[in-house]
Amino acid sequence: MKNIEIKARVDDIDEVEKRAKELSDTPLEVIKQHDIFFNLPSVQSASGGRLKLRQFQDNSGELIYYERPNVEGPKMCNYSKIDLDQQRKEELKELLIKSNGILGNVKKTRHLYMVGNTRIHIDRVFELGNFMELEVAISDTDDPVEGEKIAKNLMKDLGIPETSLLSGAYMDMIIKS
Question: In which domain of life is the source organism classified (predicted)?
């Protein structure tokens, strides 16, 4: 699975939320997430690889491995995801803690809007601030350049200046703080 991503810091979250709502094809979905990032061997982490267990409010979860370069602006993200029920999530979490150790935690409330094949995430990240992510879903046959154009146009429509773009993951920012 692939998408083109943009991540940016948001100064006026209410304005971005208003614009996202106007652009969206779907109603707002509020998602509380707790991501546990696990340590990875240096070979994988050198490629921008990350492994996280995402836990939801209903105790379900997802195991997600992704590779994404740490650059500002539109970037390709390749990922694999497995949906987990509560029991499997807990079993897997314990196994990964024992085998890999925890790198850190990210807790956030995500407001999700859809615009065509693009997910607009407006994130309130605990102890970090307010952010916006765009994920333009693309298939193996889609031209990534088209995905980048969609992301850049949506960024403009949301009023996000290029000076707000970020290169890394929330976990990277937490580690640096």
Answer: Eukaryota
User: What are 36-71's pLDDT values in tens digits?
Assistant: 999 997 644 556 789 999 999 999 999 999 998 888
Q: Strand, helix or coil at 174?
A: helix
Cα 146 from Cα 79, distance rounded (Å) = 19
Tens of pLDDT along 131-155? 999 999 999 899 889 999 999 999 9
Residue 55 and residue 168: Cα distance in Å, rounded?
21
Structure-block tokens of residue 93: 């979490």
Task: Quote the CA–CA distance of 137 and 11 in Å, as a whole number.
Answer: 26
DSSP codes joined into one string, 108-170? EEEEEEEETTEEEEEEEETTTEEEEEEEEEE-TTS-HHHHHHHHHHHHHHTT--GGGB--S-H
